[in-house]
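Quick review question:
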């Protein structure tokens, strides 16, 4: 995809076609810059993508968002795909546990932070004394300052233990929020990031935590509309082009790489630009940046990653009436009904089981995962015991997110660097958010502002 650019406009190269790179490219193009985006894959969307298997359209993972994710929701509107998503009118989290009737955590009409007080008071997975203790811990959590660097030295789990929250309460309540947002259990998550998540999503505004879902596949919602939007913005996009080296020049920076070919088969040259946005996963960015950025890039390489495993389970009939649910007292963390989005026959039901912080599951074979999770699903969904299993697939994201544990804040870099014209983007940058769709888009906006400042000089 390419098009004529405004004469005399500054040049910006964007490395990476995930949400951060897409956002930065669109912002820079809207300001009149000549933008080239390079992406090693043959698709856009980064870690949010879909694939086809056995006639089904499957997402690599279950990416949800919150009503308070304004930057991400604005991007959806910009791409024209907001209609392919929905946000709950009011936060509702169905909770399943073996041998028990479903329970729903539902926000009430009181202002924050009291909107969940009624649901917590009736929550059967905590004893009465535990419910009161959880409310006191939530109020104490609201008083923390997430930006305080001392909070990044402790885990949420240790802090909760110091506020009277035992392991039962953590398993039944706190990890319901920590796992999907931080990709870690409370015992391992940074207190600073956890305080931000709970305050932003649950304790500051009553409606902030209403959950948003992608009703179509991720490729239909993000990758394909992004390709159209970039083409309309006259951004030159090179797919299948791997950036391998950054070089400083008198005019700015050059991006050298390989892989892509022009229409007639000749190799495409590197990209020269006054500003370069590096919007790659942090491990890959560390390698690419080391030659020009030095020690900060090497330090970034020390930021660990955390995996996510997704199970794709297709039954020959409907076994679950809920669109999604959380699990307590079971290895099933969250499950989603994706039958319609996948294009599965209406006589079947396709459930996606999302497993965050999944180091143990990463090491399990497909057979071992089947042995562990099919009986667990049958305990939660009695109708599954009488259904025939049509398909059982596993997808694994080895480095799904940066590890949001203690010490991570010191390793996350800001968008600006000491190298003129070089700016960074990605959910791993210092946005204040954990690795989320919102953080990725926010980082793209910040990187575009930095790149445009360079052009204005």
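Suggested answer, residue by residue:
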């Amino acid at each position: 995809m390419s098009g004529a650019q405004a004469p005399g406009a500054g040049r910006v190269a964007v490395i990476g076609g995930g949400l951060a790179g897409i956002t930065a490219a669109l912002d820079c193009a809207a300001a009149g810059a000549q933008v080239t985006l390079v992406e090693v894959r043959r698709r856009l969307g980064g870690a949010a993508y879909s694939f086809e298997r056995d006639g089904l359209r499957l997402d690599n993972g279950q990416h949800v968002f919150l009503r308070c994710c304004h930057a991400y929701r604005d991007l959806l509107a910009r791409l024209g795909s907001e209609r392919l998503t929905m946000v709950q009118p009011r936060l509702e989290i169905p909770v399943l546990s073996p041998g028990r009737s479903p329970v729903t955590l539902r926000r009430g009409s009181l202002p924050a932070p009291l909107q969940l007080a009624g649901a917590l008071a009736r929550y059967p997975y905590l004893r009465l004394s535990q419910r009161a203790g959880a409310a006191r811990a939530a109020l104490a959590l609201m008083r923390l300052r997430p930006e305080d660097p001392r909070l990044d030295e402790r885990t949420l789990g240790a802090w909760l233990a110091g506020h009277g929250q035992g392991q039962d309460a953590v398993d039944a309540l706190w990890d319901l929020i920590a796992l999907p947002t931080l990709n870690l259990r409370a015992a391992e998550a940074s207190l600073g990031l956890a305080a931000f998540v709970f305050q932003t999503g649950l304790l500051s505004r009553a409606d902030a935590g209403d959950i948003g879902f992608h009703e179509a596949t991720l490729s239909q919602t993000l990758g394909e509309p992004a390709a159209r939007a970039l083409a309309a913005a006259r951004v030159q996009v090179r797919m299948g082009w791997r950036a391998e080296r950054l070089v400083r020049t008198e005019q700015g920076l050059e991006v050298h790489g390989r892989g892509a070919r022009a229409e007639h088969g000749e190799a495409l040259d590197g990209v020269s630009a006054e500003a370069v946005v590096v919007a790659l996963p942090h491990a890959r960015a560390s390698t690419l940046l080391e030659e020009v950025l030095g020690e900060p890039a090497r330090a970034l390489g020390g930021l660990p990653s955390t995996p996510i495993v997704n199970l794709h389970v297709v039954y020959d009939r409907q076994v679950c009436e809920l669109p999604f649910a959380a699990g307590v007292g079971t290895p099933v963390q969250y499950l989603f009904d994706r039958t319609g989005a996948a294009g599965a026959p209406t006589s079947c039901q396709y459930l996606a089981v999302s497993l965050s912080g999944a180091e143990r599951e990463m090491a399990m074979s497909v057979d071992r995962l089947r042995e562990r999770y099919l009986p667990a699903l049958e305990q939660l969904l009695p109708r599954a015991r009488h259904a025939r299993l049509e398909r059982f697939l596993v997808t694994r994201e080895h480095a799904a997110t940066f590890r949001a544990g203690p010490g991570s804040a010191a390793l996350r870099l800001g968008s600006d660097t000491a190298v003129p014209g070089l700016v960074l983007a990605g959910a791993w940058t210092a946005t204040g958010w954990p690795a989320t769709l919102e953080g990725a888009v926010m980082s793209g906006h910040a990187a575009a502002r930095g790149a445009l400042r360079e052009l204005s000089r």
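Why it works: Residues 415 and 424 are 4 Å apart (CA to CA). The domain at 11-46+218-303+406-456 is CATH 3.50.50.60 (FAD/NAD(P)-binding domain).
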